[in-house]
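Notes from the pairing session

We agreed to fold both candidates in a single pass and log them together. This is the raw record for the first candidate, unedited. Please don't reformat it; downstream parsing expects exactly this layout.

Candidate A
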Amino acid sequence: MRPMTLSDDELAVNAIGQAVRAGRKRLGLSVQQFADRADVSLGLVSTLERGRGNPSLHTLRQLAAVLGVGVADLLEPALEDVGVVRADERHLLPVPDGAEPQRVVRELLTPRGETRLQVIRSTLPVGFSNEAQPFRHLATESITVESGRLLLAHGDRRETLEPGDSATYGCEKPHWWANVADTPTVVIGAVTASER
């Protein structure tokens, strides 16, 4: 009896399902919450996460939008033994709309298909603060200030970080950053998804 092998289509659907599941968990969403946000059925998400189904391009776009990635990211193969991201090939992550001088530049330093660990280099312009829109999600984050000065607010706690200083915190509490230097502040952050 020959061992059963998967077709290219089955391998692709399996990879998409793994990416969706990992991304959903990174966002701390249940299958139902994720399905609601993507405006697809619970059954579709559940089936896809089990490596089955035949999602349309429209569906893939909806799923990718909720995950904050491009459709191509869902189709990329799993990370190999070594994933290299060249300095001139860094992916720029989306940032909230706002005045151009206040936009943060967020560069993904880890491969785009990686969802368990993301390392991001953020350049915060002078005067930047996201106090009005704090972050809150299920993850653990560790940051190091490369240059400038960063005010880190985590719940009621405030810490000013100088170059070389690091902080690690759970992201379940509302948290925000402010650049308190008179030059751009550069922060290297590593985010790991919380498993449920």
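Candidate B (folded immediately after A)
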Amino acid sequence: MEDTIGAPQPLAASEQMLEAAVRYADERHWDVFPGSWLDDNGGDLRCSCGFSGCPAPGAHPTRTDWPGQATGSGVAVRRMWSREPRASVLLPTGRSFDVIDVPEVAGCLALARMERMELPLGPVMSTPNRRLVFFVLPGASAKVPDLVRRLGWPPSALDMVVRGDGDYVPAPPTRMGRGSVQWARQPTALNRWLPDAEELISPLAYACGREAAALRDR
């Protein structure tokens, strides 16, 4: 039986956050740390940080020392969320994985092509700001720019963001604005071993290049 993370459960929102964070740590052996959350003031959603212009409402670190706070211990995770059960679930990149973050349309095109090519795939997240986030082995942030150049694109021409050491991503079921982060491809026993960025970069760059060209032609 496959182990899946983030499947819908009949739990309160705060319980879902805690259970997901514990499962990431215990089952996937990913480091986890708590972030900000959304306060609902009569339908007006605001980030707990209190900044009206918050660029990532409900989904950013609340401490500057968050890299040292992140833990892969389920016991420590439960202790942290007991202090603030509404906290979002954040995952540091550059440790167990890096991620490649692309526009949703390009990501869906690339994902379909990868499946046709039977490429190895790791988990893939979908975010409310219409992005797809592909999990790959650590080290992608250092090698992707050169890989993209070899394929004929200047990295600055593609809407492709690689997150590695010193960065993080919000994980399901974290709420961001009016939506929630979700799994497009859930973590399972079958994708425990992540692909190298080099295995996925060709379809990702091709799809991002097509989208960039389409935007220029509008």
